[in-house]
Amino acid sequence: MADTDNVAELRSQLEQARRIAVTLEQENAELEARLEKYVGKEPTVRDEMAYLQRCLNSVLEVCDQVASQATRRKNPLPAPEWATAIREAATGERPEDPTDKRRRIYIDGNGNGWLDQSTGYGDVRWVAPLAIFPGEAEPSTTVRDRTGELHEIGRCW
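The chain above was modelled as a monomer; its predicted structure follows.
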């Protein structure tokens, strides 16, 4: 009788394991279907840069509209100060602040991050890759030539 009870218990456990396996297969199929919607559809660095360029163009267009509205009047007004400051910031034409000692953060044409290693002496900016263990620093012009681009995206201490 003990063998019969053991066999019944084992059959019960086997049936439970089969139900769990079926449930896991169904969940796996659902996850694979959801994943297929996204795989291969991630934006590339170029796509992201194109998006940012469209945003920048929109900002510059608003500045142009404000400037043109100021000149449409009988007695033209100067463009608002904020429009001039926004245009300078958007085009990167803001004057360099010599008191700003923060390190520059860059992104290159491949989407890799770089951190300014310059000490403030000379005209050459030395940058090192952003990583847990940064590599050797190299001139920013070399990185720009190798990757096609190098854009400042922020600053840090």
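The chain is about 50% helix and 15% strand.
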